[in-house]
Amino acid sequence: MIPQKRLQVVINFNNDIGDYMEWSGEGWYPVNLSNDAYKFATNYVVYGLTH
User: Fold this and answer.
1) 1 and 14 Cβ atoms separated by less than 8 Å
2) Radius of gyration, CA atoms only, the chain
3) CA gap 19, 51 in Å, rounded
4) Maximum pairwise Cα distance, the chain
5) For residue 10, what pLDDT is reported?
6) Secondary structure (3-state) at 5
């Protein structure tokens, strides 16, 4: 069997991307953190669909 070297786990230390996205419209978190959360989530989905 040939190893595929695929990504197995994604870890975000001291970040709660779901909360940043969930409460982005309420003003609880700074805009730059909410924007980064959406960028990370989009990258994770695209990576998962293409690899």
Assistant:
1) no
2) 14
3) 26
4) 50
5) 79
6) coil
Tens digits of residue pLDDT in 1-51 = 666 777 777 777 777 888 888 888 888 888 988 899 899 999 988 988 887
The residue behind tokens 């197995």 is 8
Tokens of 14: 């001291």
23 vs 33, 35, 49, CA distance in Å?
Answer: 11, 12, 26
Q: Which residue has the tokens 């190893």?
A: 3
Which pair of structure tokens corresponds to residue 39?
A: 């960028």
CA pair distance 1, 22, nearest whole angstrom: 42
